[in-house]
Amino acid sequence: MTPIQFDRLILHPGSPKTGTSGLQNFLFRKRDALRDLGYLYPMSGIDVESGTAKGHHAIALAIDPNASEPSEHLRAMLEALRAEIAAAPDKTVILSSEEFFHAQRMEVFKHYLQPASCQIYVSLRPQYEVMNANYYTQVTHNRIKNPPEAYFNSMKLGLKFPEIMTVFAQFTHNTDVKLRVFERGSPVRKSPIEDFLTVMGIDLSYDPEDNIVEHPTLPAVATLFLRWLNDVGVSQTDFFEVFQDLHKMRPSLSKQTYTMSPDYMRTVVERFERDNIWLRQNFGDGASEPLFQTPEYPDAELWEQEVGRDLAAVQHKFLKQLCTMAESGKSR
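^ Sulfotransferase domain-containing protein, sequence as received from the core. Prediction below:
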């Protein structure tokens, strides 16, 4: 198909687990205000009925890296996008989806879009945090049954930050990649929406209440309890009811968030050290040090007491805790 040509693109591909849903929801709700400021947040590729996160996931997910031509479904969305851009030729186009954080998809996507200039806003989170947060999402949204380390062993093979950053940098002949480090204490971690607006120079008013966190991570023992519900085949209705109740109980639950053990965390940090040095040298301040700070590792003995590797013991202990809390509530 003929590429879509236009002046300027702002692309936000995440990465995943860096406040993407909150930002997409904000951009969707503010699309009229953005248009008044000279920006187009297109409706093409957004599944309006899918919930609160209004990113362009449908376009990204429809890209088949192995196909020589776009599918009819993808072609229809791209033609709708072309029409929206043609109707607003003076606007800067903003596209957002963490599903664009995929080297092979982006290699294909750049043949469909040809902006004269492109800015790519990328947030990267420490790999061990991405793995831990994504395990929670997979347990609660995709109902996986995998024990933590089995999931982590498979996921770390796909965390190729240098590869995807290189593809981003080559998206057009005039591409500027804005790399943000999503870790504790950083501006983007404190307020993903505000950081995006500031870094991209978008003069749009922002209220902290606009930051809707769609997927807050539950503590580790609660996550492992939900994994057990998947394992025993609890229905989706019952699972969701327990899921909601656990979020209500969050203040009274253990504060330990890592299903990943401290020693496994160390192996992840060591595995990606060279990648993270390369990222800082090529997309950061140029220093020959890792992009991310040294983690504050959980106390190993305390982690074993509060979480541990014995999943059956975790489930038994947590179920007993829930029963005690229920009895306490009845006696009031």
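Strands lie at 4-12, 39-40, 92-96, 113-124, 175-181.
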